[in-house]
Amino acid sequence: DASDIEKGTYPHYMLKEIDEQPLVTRKIIQAYQNDNNELTIDADIIQSVNDTDRIYIIACGTSYHAGLVGKQFIENMAGIPVEVHVASEFSYNMPLLSEKPLFIFISQSGETADSRSVLVQVKELGHRSLTITNVQGSTLSREADYTLLLHAGPEIAVASTKAYTAQLAVLAIFANVTAASKGKELGFDLVQELGIVATSMEALCDSKEGFEDIAREYLATTRNCFFIGRSLDYYVGLEGALKLKEISYIQAEGFAGGELKHGTIALIEEGTPVVALATQESVNLSIRGNVKEVAARGANPCIISMKGLEEEDDRFVLPEVNEMLTPLISVIPLQLISYYAALHRDCDVDKPRNLAKSVTVE
Ligand code: G6P
């Protein structure tokens, strides 16, 4: 309950929750370690994952965006096919299911009605389910067969921040432990890599002024803003656009870099802000090509890249982390830019108009 959680010296819960991300990441590492410091999850869950032929992730909003990244984690590390669905669409457009599906519900609150209604449906069909949630004892947690907790502490601001990175960390651990149970060699130590992520998050939270500058420079008066990226950066761009629309009311869209030419580029006008993420080596040249295309049509590009891939005009260079885990850190600049944009535009950061923290109606 908001009244029980103090903002302390913070002007807004959102800023406090953004700053909590390094700590939450460390808490999650601890919570999922056994006495030998190995990552572990409930044996029943592992059993169910090893029995499944396909995972279906069901979620809404920010949790859906976490699911898109989670699919890559699970497919790349554990080698299990994954589909990600928006809960509301799934109900009336249920895809043909595999023989032995496992459903994963991602929900910060554990109360979202759209996701609950899918859970009711798939339980009737007799399928297994796992809820990844921040709230122990929440409806989705009680109704599913298994639960993995986010350990993020209460999230009060309507715009989700620390729950998103916590969802990514837990999904990475889930994928990693599953991979280990299948005897797969991944060639990296996730505990160590997540530790590096936490340290990098701290560095980003200490760079707030830079992000305030970006917000002022690009977003003080604009009507719209685009986020582009390829591969994992595309998914983070979707989340960045959602954050910006939720709290600053700027019309924002996230696009896959390769899709620009199929329509969106028509929207680029003189001065249109385009935030481009460039953290993935395999698509670095292509995304930079997209930046040139929009710049040639008058856009005002803001490139956020990662150490090792940076170029001269980049506006911000993220510290280097494991390439698969970049969404855990590349989202932080986008959260902070949205926060400062909302602030500059005199918006109610923690309680944006028309939105609720948890939506318990379909
Ligand atoms: C609401 C919130 C969003 C959230 C979504 C899903 O729309 O405003 O921030 O992402 O619900 O919530 P959940 O609790 O299921 O993650």
Automatic annotation (TrEMBL):
Record localization: Cytoplasm
Location (main, coarse): cytoplasm
Signal peptide (from-to): none
Active-site residues per Swiss-Prot or TrEMBL entry: K357
Catalytically driven reaction(s): D-fructose 6-phosphate + L-glutamine = D-glucosamine 6-phosphate + L-glutamate
EC number: 2.6.1.16
Keyword line: Aminotransferase, Cytoplasm, Glutamine amidotransferase, Repeat, Transferase
Cytoplasm in keyword set: yes
Domain SIS residue range list: 45-184, 214-352
GO MF annotations, alphabetized: glutamine-fructose-6-phosphate transaminase (isomerizing) activity
Domain of life of the organism encoding this protein: Bacteria
Function as written in the Swiss-Prot or TrEMBL entry: Catalyzes the first step in hexosamine metabolism, converting fructose-6P into glucosamine-6P using glutamine as a nitrogen source.
Subunit structure: Homodimer.
The protein, known as: Glutamine--fructose-6-phosphate aminotransferase [isomerizing]
Organism: Rossellomorea pakistanensis
Source organism phylogeny: Bacteria, Bacillati, Bacillota, Bacilli, Bacillales
